[in-house]
Amino acid sequence: MLRRLAASLTLKLVALIGLFVALPIVLYGQFESADSQMQILVTRAIQDRSALIAEALAPVLRDTDPSEPMNLNRELAKYASSGTVLKLMYQPPDARTASRFYLVASAPPLGPEAVTAELEELGQRGILQRLSEACTWNASDEMRYSRADGTVELLTSIIPIRARGNCWILTTTHVASEFLDTSIGRPYWQTREVRIAAAIYLGGALLAVLVALGIRLSLRRFRNVADEIALGRAVDATFVQRNTVPELSGVARDFDRLVHELRRVSREIRQSAEDNAHSFKTPLAAVQSALRPVKRAVPEQDQRARRALEIIESSLARLLALVNAAQRHDIGTADLIDAPRVPTDLAPLVEDAARHFREILAARDIGLSVRLDRGAVVRTATGMMEIVLQNVLENAISFSSPRTTIAVSLRVSPDTVALTVDDEGPGIDPEKLDSVFQRYFSLRPEDGIGSDRAVEHSGLGLWIVRRNVEALGGQVVALNRPGGGLSIGMRLPRAVIH
Question: Locate the Histidine kinase domain: which residues (predicted)?
Answer without folding.
Answer: 275-496
